[in-house]
Amino acid sequence: MKILVIHGPNLNLLGEREPEVYGRTSLADIDKRLAGLAEERGIEIQTMQSNSEGAIVDAIHEARTWAGGLILNPGAYTHYSLAIRDALRAVRLPAVEVHLSNVFAREEFRHRSVIAPVCIGSVCGFGRQSYELALNGLLEYIHSRTEAR
Ligand code: DQA
Q1: How does DSSP classify residue 63?
Q2: Position in ligand 1 atom list of the atom nearest CA 98
Q3: Cα 36 from Cα 15, distance rounded (Å)
Q4: Residue nearest to atom 1 of ligand 1 (CA)
Q5: CATH architecture of 2-147
Q6: What is the average pLDDT value for the chain, to the nearest integer?
Q7: Residue 33, Cα to own-chain centre: how many angstroms?
Q8: Which stretches of the chain drop beneath a pLDDT of 70?
């Protein structure tokens, strides 16, 4: 089982970017913890970060040839990228939306996600742990679907 983890714009600055909102953990640390969890669960993960919408769309397209599912934190694209939403719908891979912060406790423009309706679920507000919760949830979902067949 292989899972693609996509980190969107500005997440390369985690640790130094608004630490009171996003915490002090760097993106490299998040990826390391995810790799550890993946090893424990006997799966493989590939992670990528991009500040560009097109690169994220391309990565989602490519994932349809090798991944069993996706975890993505689309950053600000969450709130308006119909291109990322359409890409997810097109590839039909199970995807989980992740946010470090509780977007619903923040500015109004962050309350709307155009991505959530094409995901199997969303996790937000648990800092770096949001990713780990998302990975566990995604794997449970995938396993329950394969068992049901
Ligand atoms: C974020 C929330 C978004 O609103 C914001 O634009 C981000 C980070 C989060 O992880 O909490 O860049 O996705």
Answers
A1: H
A2: 10
A3: 20
A4: 75
A5: 3-Layer(aba) Sandwich (3.40)
A6: 96
A7: 14
A8: none
